[in-house]
Predict the 3D structure of the following.
Amino acid sequence: MVSPKNPLIIGMAGFGTVGSGLLRILVENKAHLFARTGREIKVKTILVRSPKKTRTFPLPEDVRLTTNPDDLINDQEIEVVVELMGGIQAPLDLIKKALNAGKHVVTANKALLAETGNKLFAIAKEKGLHLAYEASICGGIPIVETLKQGLGANKVKSLLGILNGTCNYILSEMTSKGLPFFEVLKKAQQLGYAEADPTLDIEGTDAAHKLALLIRLAWGVEYPFSDLPVRGVAEVTASDIAYAREFGYRIKLIGEAQMIDGRLEAGVFPALVHETLLLSQVSGAYNAVRIDGDAVGPVFLHGKGAGDSPTGSAVAADLLTIARGHTPDNTGFCAPPLPTPAAVIPPDEAQSHYYIRLLVLDKPGVLRDVAAVMADNNISIAQAIQKGDCDDGLCPESPTKPFVFMTHKASARGIGLALAKLEGSGFVHQKPVCYRVFTNHV
Amino acid sequence: MVSPKNPLIIGMAGFGTVGSGLLRILVENKAHLFARTGREIKVKTILVRSPKKTRTFPLPEDVRLTTNPDDLINDQEIEVVVELMGGIQAPLDLIKKALNAGKHVVTANKALLAETGNKLFAIAKEKGLHLAYEASICGGIPIVETLKQGLGANKVKSLLGILNGTCNYILSEMTSKGLPFFEVLKKAQQLGYAEADPTLDIEGTDAAHKLALLIRLAWGVEYPFSDLPVRGVAEVTASDIAYAREFGYRIKLIGEAQMIDGRLEAGVFPALVHETLLLSQVSGAYNAVRIDGDAVGPVFLHGKGAGDSPTGSAVAADLLTIARGHTPDNTGFCAPPLPTPAAVIPPDEAQSHYYIRLLVLDKPGVLRDVAAVMADNNISIAQAIQKGDCDDGLCPESPTKPFVFMTHKASARGIGLALAKLEGSGFVHQKPVCYRVFTNHV
């Protein structure tokens, strides 16, 4: 924040959607960025695979394309390497080399950081460099900064997020139009909201990567990524969405973590969210995170979770931090310097409200028998919908009808045992459907 | 973020609600704050008016109370003065002295900063010190940091906020329970949501102070505080809330600013907010801000806008920044170093959709005549509600009935001229009611 300094010279790796968005911001908002930091922020070299490819943002004359990573690493003028390549191994190598060459690194690579971030944080810490990653969680929402800084004095009690725009778009469209999953997925692919191979998104892996990073930022601990319970959205049906609405809920893909007596419970899964919670109102490709801090109470952040400009905005925010000369605080904690393994609540022991849909035999006494199985497993039913007719194709085997209910708080294990018992009971047809529920008392 | 350093020693001025909340956080989350920063954050001395008064948070043994400001200013050990006194002149003197003595300052004093902030920012800038004020806008919501940093690379197009929890509580209660303003105000006072003298809140001044600070952070310019158009909530009636709902809107006290072709339009006023906007869902004493950035698009932040712990959380966030050794960036801009006067769009020229309620003579041709007056002033009616009966006490003079409509975009001047014409027309009784409208296309 002192008088004009040397320009901050950037080397970019990758020139796809986000790279183009970032370059546009740095070029179009150049004077604004100078006003904010007192330094010009200037891209010198971009590492690409195909130098001849046409770009969505035209390359300024003084920016050089290269296919050789060493042109970033060995350039003494380059102070920051911005990694926007995607993938794991190539960016890992590049980031290591950049840090070892004394360059700050900014990355949007959630998969890399979630799965192998700690070794990179260790190098950055040792070298006193920034390894910044605002863009890796929820695009343009400034959630990394908020957890490190704005809410940093709080012990976080819980966080709850809609972390994947593709899944949220699909569930929103299913909800507003009553369409089945695969039909909406196809439309999302046509509109560019879903990849040709949507696996990472719809299976919940992308949300899980973001959740792993959020957990580190909130608590300074590591939930072993391969142990994180993850469930995708492909199994969500239009019928469950409709039943959820009858109870006053929306079905959302939720990434969730809470610290309970020093142990962490976390997971990614479709869940019912009460319509009085702002999270239930997040529509289309938007993302949102709700953080509950011990001092501040619940804070809710909402914005675009992907796209060239929103994600570019987040990368540029990290460049501002570096240009301003702030001290690196990459993990948000310095004691211990790196995330330590979390004490984890086994997923089976997680307590929650549940939504359950059964296809039951349409004869006297069946509901009593279902209730008895639930009671045997210490599960009490909070609300139920008994459907008299079956006009939604859910009852292929007649005479059957759906029985839909919500429980009071129960453990995942208790629910699992009760559902297994019901499945083998003879009076419940098909596999029971079961989702966690976030009530208005979150 | 390096190995353990000396403690960060704090002198606090004021030990009321926020002071107690802050002290509680610093004591109860001491280990957590050390883990975040590598420094102990420790209150040494608190300036109070009445040392014998009982406090809501018990004073730790090693904290000293004083009635002499010099015990903060002249103490070489004290690195940061936290100003939580309230008022204008005493804190102004204290902050000046603290900065001149080389101490960082953290304050929650929105009135002081809005009305006379620049001279303090100038001293802080000259001395290279932090003058931090996260707690002065919307309590626990990290909006200051977000505008400086997380969205700092964006040119802000507009910001729209619910900046006063007292007003929002009152309007929310009027909306959900159909009660009149003064009845709800009395209840709010009994519950402690409104002051005994609620003038600053209900007349919109408090929201205007916050808006002035937001404008500086977003654009680095100064809207002359005394020129800012401000309208309070006391005139909002349960009937207008009910009509607004019929159109799909809620009435909220909105602080609003937008940059249009380099000129700033801003104000504080009750307005209709479309129910699909998250802002319309902000209930009770919560605050929220929606920032529309050129790159990131709309970002929405929501949380508790007041109270000991949320506001204490924001003060503590500023202490984290200082403990981490970040470079001061108090105004969020360094070129120019201080906010410059804004080029302002005269309030009369502001374009908006409007809600208008008239009490018209119940006879043929009146609606045609109203429409003609509007058309003469280039205002077109978008939607109308014609009420046949009058059961809500709005029509003391029979035969009259309410005529309620919303306009397409029009200038404030055009609306003013049309309403003046209607008022003098003979077929409109009572003063017309008129509010700005934020549609779902904000």
Notes: Chain A touches chain B through 68 residues (CB under 8 Å).
